[in-house]
Design the sequence.
């Protein structure tokens, strides 16, 4: 299923490009309990400049310092009793990132469901459920995603081809600042669309033809 681990240069680009290019890649989590993995079907970009929804908009804090680190590291934060996973983008010192919002599970589904504590046929539709199902918490904040262990992103053996025509572009979900920016991206075709967190909540004016 998996091919090579995505390397630093993949992440060392603007967050909009990375957010779109992460679609169709595989997020992998390896723990003593086993391996869980899923195809990334939904992302959101957070810009380093002129984006008040970015956690680093007002500067570096203890909470957001991972965003200022090298590209290809994880920025994990906690909100409303859940965790959210981001991939840091652009050169070190430029605080931008991509939130991974939803996955289509491809390995370890039973383990994901057990971690959620309930029977859920779609255990990774949303960033909070995704992190709980994958066993991602604050201990992975700052983790180097390019190492290929514990937590990483990989290509598939047969790369999933994603063009602009395959991607729906919308405003981000759950933000109050800069809420109209078209920085949320998801795969519109099946079976991926089944695993998007909120496929029916979007402004069609953003949608690519």
Sequence:
């Amino acid at each position: 299923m998996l091919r090579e681990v995505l390397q630093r240069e993949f992440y060392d680009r603007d967050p909009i490009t990375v957010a779109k290019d992460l679609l169709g890649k595989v997020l992998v989590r390896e723990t003593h309990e086993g391996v869980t993995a899923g195809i990334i079907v939904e992302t959101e970009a957070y810009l380093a400049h002129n984006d008040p929804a970015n956690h680093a908009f007002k500067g570096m804090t203890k909470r957001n310092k991972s965003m200022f680190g090298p590209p290809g590291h994880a920025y994990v934060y906690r909100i409303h009793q859940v965790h959210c996973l981001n991939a840091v983008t652009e050169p070190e010192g430029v605080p931008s990132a991509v939130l991974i919002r939803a996955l289509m599970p491809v390995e370890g589904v039973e383990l994901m469901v057990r971690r959620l504590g309930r029977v859920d046929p779609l255990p990774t539709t949303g960033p909070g459920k995704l992190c709980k199902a994958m066993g991602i918490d604050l201990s992975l904040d700052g983790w180097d995603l390019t190492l290929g262990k514990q937590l990483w992103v990989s290509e598939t053996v047969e790369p999933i081809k994603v063009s602009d025509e395959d991607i729906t572009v919308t405003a981000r979900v759950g933000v109050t600042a800069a809420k109209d920016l078209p920085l949320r991206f998801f795969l519109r075709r099946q079976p991926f669309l089944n695993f998007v967190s909120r496929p029916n909540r979007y402004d069609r004016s953003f949608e690519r033809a």
About this structure: The chain has a mean pLDDT of 91. The beta strands are 2-5, 26-31, 34-46, 74-79, 82-89, 96-107, 151-156, 167-170, 184-187.
